[in-house]
Amino acid sequence: MKKILMAVTEWNYPTVITPEVEAKIKALGDVVQREDLANKATEDYDPEAAYVKAIREVQPEIIVTGWGTAMLTMKAYRASPDLKYLCHCAGTVRKLVAREVIEAGLLVSNWGPLPARTVAEASLMMTLAGLRKVSGFIRAMDAGGWRDDEFTGASLFERKVGLQGLGVIAQEFVRLLGPFGCEVSAYSPHCPDEVFERLGVRRETSLARLYAESDVVSIHASNTPENYHVVNKEILDGMQDGAVLVNTARGAIIDGAALAQKLREGKIWAALDVYETEPLPEDSPFRGLTNALLMPHQGGPTADRRKDMGRHALANLTRYINGEPVTDVVDLRKYDLIT
Prior knowledge:
Blueprint: E1 3-6, H1 13-16, H2 19-28, E2 30-33, H3 47-58, E3 62-65, H4 74-77, E4 85-88, H5 99-103, E5 107-109, H6 116-131, H7 134-142, E6 160-164, H8 168-177, E7 183-187, H9 193-199, E8 202-203, H10 207-213, E9 216-219, H11 233-237, E10 244-247, H12 256-264, E11 269-272, E12 292-294, H13 307-321, H14 332-337
Parallel strand pairs: 1-2, 1-3, 3-4, 4-5, 6-7, 6-9, 7-8, 9-10, 10-11, 11-12
Helix pairs in contact: 2-13, 6-8
């Protein structure tokens, strides 16, 4: 039987690897569970050294990882000549696998489009909360207040919604917007026309116009070098008064200092789930603003849906064991683009 090193960390193992999934994975191979391989160095813990030790001891062909698993460096990769496949239960692998390891030939897969519907759901929730100015109401009510004309909200029905990016999450978001009769446009230069036509979304060729003409802008772009701080002061200054900016993609897409200043002016509202520095620093200028709804990067699978991650990993492990093609492979191109 193939050796499988189960390296999903202790804190998220129970919700991702359910007993049913665990039993089926154990039926596929010789599983060795190491829940201590966390990507968190301390005075008495070296993640790389722990990984090297575990791989040398187990000599796995397959490693199963999740949120918070230590980085697989070249040194750790070389600790077992049998290592062929890393099955990641979650999304981004940039802090999980060194790029040179993929270059060296390790097969890596992730959850692919699995989280799209829950992130889209979070985007819808944040859009509604931004339009309804929920963050302002919460603070007013906590302070003993009641109704306040300053926080009179707006409806999503028949609004102009602009999408920065039209990948799988944005496409799910478009479907959720269906009942609201919104006029949806998107700035996504590399997305085929067929996708726009199928979804009934208007293509916008200017990011500045997308922001200027939308009541709501929802960011779904990739965290690439060209997108670093692409939402700058000029773009933000072009937004309509009362417009709502939603970001469930990555914080570095927005110039944070420019957004904080724009929010302090009180002209727009923002609902943010991601930040350039995470966890969000205590002294962040976003904290305490009545026109900013702040989420702690929780837009992905909710606790009750994390079981889908384990099921998806199980399906790929089964394919690999059976000699079938693995889905959602992270090659070098995906590695560089993935958020």
